[in-house]
Amino acid sequence: MNLPEFRQTLAANAPPAGISHALEALWWDAKGDWNQAHAAAQKDDGRDGCAVHAYLHRVEGDLSNAGYWYKRAGRPQATDALATEWERLARELLA
Fold it and tell me: For residues 43 and 80, what is the distance between their CA atoms, to the nearest angstrom?
C-alpha cells in the first residue's frame, strides 16, 4: 500500500486489516481520534511505535513526554509541521 491508497482507507470506519500498530495509530490520528491512536501506539514498543508515540504526544502538546519517546525511538525531536511529520512517518511505515 502506498500513501495515497492509505489515505483512501480513511473513508472507512476501521483501519485496514493487517497493518502495523504504529500505522494504525497514524490512521486513528488522521481520523481525529487521539485516544484510539495512542492506544494503538502503545501496543508497539519498537522504534516505529515509539516514533509514532512521540508524534502523538507532540500533537497533544506534551513536548516533555514527546521528547522521551523520540529518545526511545532513536530520533531527534521533530520541529516541522505536524502534518509533515505525519506524512513522513506514514511513508516510512508503508515502505
Answer: 26
